[in-house]
Amino acid sequence: MLSIKNISKIYKGSNKGISNLSLELHQGDICAFIGANGAGKTTTIKSIVGIHPFDKGEVTLFGTNLQANPAHFKSMIGYSPDTPALYPNMTGKAYLELIASLYEIDEGERNKNLAYLLKELTFETAVHELISSYSHGMKQRLVLISLLMHNPKLIILDEPFVGLDPNATRFLIDEMKSRASEGVIILYSTHVLEVAEKVCNKLVIFHKGEVVVNDTMEHILQKASLDEIFRDVTSDD
Amino acid sequence: MTKLTLLFLFRLQNQLQLANLNSSNKDVRRHAFYTISGYIVAFLMFLGYVLFISIDLNIDNNIQAFFVLISSILFWAFGIWDILSGPDDLIKSKDRDFIFSLPLKTWQAKLLPLFSKYLIHIGLTFIVLMFGYLVTIAYIDHFFLAILFVLVLSLIIPLLSTNVTFLLAWVVRHVLSIIKWRNHVTESIITLGLFVAPLIYLIRSSASVDYKEWFIQASILRYPLNEINSFSFMQHIILLIGITAVTTSLVILLLTAFHHLVSSQNAVQSKKRRTNAIWHTHIPVTALLLKEFKLYFSSLTYVSNTILTPVAMIALNICILVGVIPNLHSFSYDVAGFTITAQHLFTFIMFTCVMLTTTTSCSLSFEGRRIWIMLTAPVSLIKIAASKMAVNILLFLPGIVLTAVVYAAIFQVRMLDLITIVALLFFSLLLISIVGFFINLHFPSYTWNNDMEVVKQSKATIITAIISMITIPAIIAVVYTGNLYLLLLIMGIEIAAIIVLLQKISCNNMMLN
Questions:
Q1: Which of B242, B268, B294 is the last residue of a domain?
Q2: Is residue B288 located within the same domain as residue B262?
Q3: Which of residues 117-176 of A touch B (CB under 8 A)?
């Protein structure tokens, strides 16, 4: 279970950030973070994966505390940032070898997963090219391969569909559903409400650094459409 | 104001970080303030040096050679600076896409980085030469001719140094690409080596040990100011103008008509990559070390600015071992009552080389926006630190080993002294590597757009360089005494500092603020 308790993060020199955010996700949950730009989605995600320190609160994953045992916590997650900045002078293969080494993935598991992911994401040839020659979408696909390669228990994706072609998008949606059915927790931020409505069982709506909706998708959709609810709760009037 | 002038001023404001002084972010404002202050202090120090040169030449009754000497120093300084910065900013600047998307003519977009560089260098040269003109005005006979001469030199020196270094760098890159031997280390060492070769040759063939004589010999200006109205002086200036015009035309031609050829050299190499189907994994520390080497060698700026001292160590040691430097044992120099022998001088140079390294002070910042990979990976900060420090140590290791050989074979020092001095050298290197990393950890900068911002201009690099410069004289003074107990004490202090810093690093939770 992923447990986020009262985390707050305010950026130095501004009042922007997140305050008192609490959330619980269980095995098999697919949760979408939605909200306007600057609402706090990315800040929350970066706090959960250990990029940003938070001012207060705690994050635990299956009993492992992020602050107390960051290396073990991070070994259980797979993260894709909103902008996939990678080492341009490495080939995709060298990057995947680096990630496989850092996550200490078993050779058999690595080879099996790589064969599957490289094929599904049509990356078998591109993996030998330099990353500097990749498009945004190819970098996204490489990051997806690297994060799925070690079979994480928690997958966190920051706007994962930006730049992906229709085939890769389809693969990602199927993979999210399939991994969730195996007990993996999936959390992602998005602006695409239609996909969130179809894929997720949980939804969190952010507005000005605070969680204004945190409920199951089923419960939310009983009241109104996602689009109407989003406009309603993020309206300042 | 024309579009081009506006764009030039906009770029200049960003390059010099003037634009960041108005940022709403306090940290960005502070960083800009420190950087600009650093530029101003460095420039004022240079002007102070110009004043010192005028006094020094006056004492030698050679003030008429002032502009010859200043022209030489400016030419070589700009040239070495340009080589350390690399030619890529002129070929494919970081804001290339932005410039090419603007409603400019193609040739204007292609030449904007070159003209920006020309104008900045011309401005700096003009200020220095005008300052020189004012401090030597009492010795100038033809005021207006001299002013005209300063204006002409302000154009010739920066244009010639920029052109020569660019053409040299391009030729070296092209030849290395043809013989398929191109990498950033080879490229930067050969380019710099070829550029400074005439200077080194003149120094070596000079009978004098006076730096002024060396630079006067190596000056692009051959005639002193008191010959300004002579025909040969005019002939020489016309020749310089001609060479400047030819080289400028060549550079402009390369960057416009052959822009595609010049900018595609990288791509040509990247196509020839092996498709090895075997996957390799390593233990995390080895994987990090391999990644560090790839990252290090991926930047010409990073390599150029940090490889000089390790290479200088190796070169000097080899020169001594093969007997290139004659009369080594008879060399001695008296400074303020202290006798400096060849062994002393050798030791000072080795310690200065080792301590002046700033490789680790920008190693964390060099990750840039890719820092998320390290931050989200299940590895401790101490492993990341170890891999980054190991790169620096491995760069210096051949030099340290050769130093030990020189001590034993050439200076024939006792075994105990040899072990102590080499151990002190190693611990000094380890300490400055850790200090650099530690400072970078506290003053990181991941949102840079140009390698130069972290390699040369970052707060961490500047602080580390200042610490090195303060520490070097202290260590050298102790080494000079040759007192074994003092050397062991210094080593003990260094080891204690290393342990404390390592503990602090291991307790640090590296995250972005």
A1: B268
A2: no
A3: 125, 128-130, 132-133
B170 and B245 share one domain: yes
- Do B293 and B215 lie in one domain? The reply is no
| Domain count across chain B | 2
Number of Cβ atoms within 10 Å of the Cβ of B204: 10
Give the chain B residue whose CA is nearest to the CA of A45. B376
List the beta bridge partners of residue A25: A2
Q: Which chain A residue is nearest to residue B275, measuring alpha carbons?
A: A128
The answer, for B285 touching chain A at a CB cutoff of 8 Å, is no
Which DSSP string do the residues of B88-111 spell out, in sequence order?
A: HHHHS-TTHHHHHHSS--HHHHHH
pLDDT of residue B69: 94
Give the residue on A whose Cα is nearest the Cα of B23: A13
Mention every residue, 6+ apart, whose C-beta is less than 8 A from residue B153: B67, B71, B125, B129, B221
Domain membership flag for residue B25: yes
> Given B268, B302, B319, which residue is the final one in a domain?
B268
B contacts of A9 (beta carbons < 8 Å)? none
> What pLDDT is recorded for position B268?
44
Banded pLDDT at B274 (limits 50, 70, 90): low
Cβ partners under 8 Å of residue A30, min gap 6: A176, A177, A180, A186, A187, A188, A199, A200, A201, A202
Query: Is residue B64 pLDDT above 80, yes or no?
Result: yes
**Is B209 in the same domain as B316?**
no
Cβ-Cβ contacts under 8 Å, B372 against chain A: 51, 79, 81, 85
- How confident is the model at residue A141, as a pLDDT? 95
* Contact assignment for B281 to A97 by CB distance below 8 Å: yes
Provide the pLDDT for residue B489. Answer: 93
> Chains A and B: how many Cβ contacts under 8 Å?
114
CA distance B132 to chain A (A): 45
**Residue type for position B179:** I
Which strands, in side-by-side order, build the sheet including A2-10?
Answer: A17-25, A2-10, A56-61, A64-65
Nearest to A102 among B267, B379, B512 (CB): B379
Query: Are B222 and B322 found together in one domain?
Result: no
Domain A1-76+155-160+189-237, CATH 3.40.50.300 — does that match? yes
ipTM above 0.90, yes or no: yes
Question: pLDDT tens-digit profile of A70-103?
Answer: 999 999 999 999 999 999 989 999 999 999 999 9
> What distances in angstroms separate CA A97 from CA A61, B277, B289, one per listed residue?
26, 12, 13
**Which B residues, 481 through 510, put their C-beta within 8 Å of a C-beta on chain A?**
509
Note whether B249 and B295 are same-domain residues: no
B340-349, pLDDT tens digit by residue? 888 888 999 9
Q: Residues, chain B, total?
A: 513
Q: Examine the domain organization and report whether B473 and B403 are in the same domain.
A: yes
Whether residue A51 and residue B512 make contact (CB cut-off 8 A), yes or no, is yes
Residue B65 resides in a domain: yes
What gap in Å lies between CA B461 and CA B478, rounded to an integer? 26
Query: Sign of dihedral through CA atoms A70, A71, A73, A78?
Result: positive
Contact A75 B378 (CB under 8 A): yes
For residue A24, the cross-strand partners are A3
Q: Write out chain A residues lying below 8 Å of B290, CB-based.
A: 98
- Report yes or no: A187 at the B interface, CB cutoff 8 Å: no
Residues 72-91 of A with CB under 8 A from B: 72-75, 77, 79, 81, 83, 85-91
Containing structural domain, residue B420: 284-507
Both B445 and B495 in one domain: the answer is: yes
